[in-house]
Every structure is written in structure tokens, then in C-alpha cells.
Amino acid sequence: SLEVIGNLYRRQHGMDVVFVRASGIYGPLYRTWLNIPSRLARAAATGARDFGPGVALPFAEGGYDQVHVTDAAEGIARVATAPVLAHPVYNIGSGGVPTYGAFAAALARVVPGFAVTLPSRGEAPSADPMDGRWMSIARTEAELGWRPRIGLDDAMAGWVDWIRRTPAAHQ
After folding, report:
1. β 24-26/66-68 pair status
2. For the segment 87-124, what is each residue's pLDDT rounded down to a tens digit?
């Protein structure tokens, strides 16, 4: 891993190496349409009624740490431009687990006529190895004053607007 190599160089050569661990990222210019927030946003923006061939709806309770691209960029910039850093690792994420149900509910609030009902997992265990995982952003917040500022409603409204204005982006 890069952290192992970076720490080796830091110790052996005295290099000032700092790592940013980023959670999942969503929003305009995200590189694929494979994650659930991407698929939900595209469905809301285009009126699509499925997530694509052979793709099942996720459980409403499912999810993992994901942060809007603008917040991620601001957090990474804060780390990169800090005059002094006390630690070699800083996490950039939401600091929690926004569920797929929360993404769907935000879209339903900001896109008139959009509704999707995600199934409930009930007592069934998740098959997703990322489900429920999140990173603490306490160090990044305490030392650099950074935490995500874009709420789900604003994030999803802006993303849907971007998808509608940029048709080639969601092909």
C-alpha cells in the first residue's frame, strides 16, 4: 500500500509524507455510474425507472461512508495547504454512514415526482463488505477545522441539475 511505502520513506529518509484517506465520493464528475448514489441521481434526473440490466435495488438501510465531491476536494485542499500537520494521516469522509434510503429520500424531496422504494433488509445480513463502514474525521476537524458542509438535499439537487445540464456526462 502507498501508506506502507510512504511511511518507509518517511522513516528512512526523513521525508515529510502525509496521507489522505478518502471515503467513497459522490457527485458531479464522479468517474463511474456504478455506485448507488450515482444510479439514484441519474434515475431522478432522467426519469429512468431501474438501475440498469441485472442490478437489484439496494437495501434502504445499507450504505457506507460517502462524501460529496466538493467537500472531499475542500478537505484534501485543507490538508495539502496546512502550514504544519501534526500527524501523517487525515481522513476525509462524512464521518458517518449516509444510507441509501437517505439518498433516495433526499432525491424525493428535491426532484418533483421522483420516488423510489428501496427494500428493507429486515434481519438479513448484508452481503456488501462496505456496508456500515465509516471513518472518523475527528482529527481532520480538530486540527484543520474541516468537516463536510453540503447536506444531502443540496448535494442531490445540485447533482441532478448538473446531470440535466450535461447530458453527455451520464451516457
Report:
1. parallel
2. 999 999 999 999 999 999 999 999 999 998 888 887 66
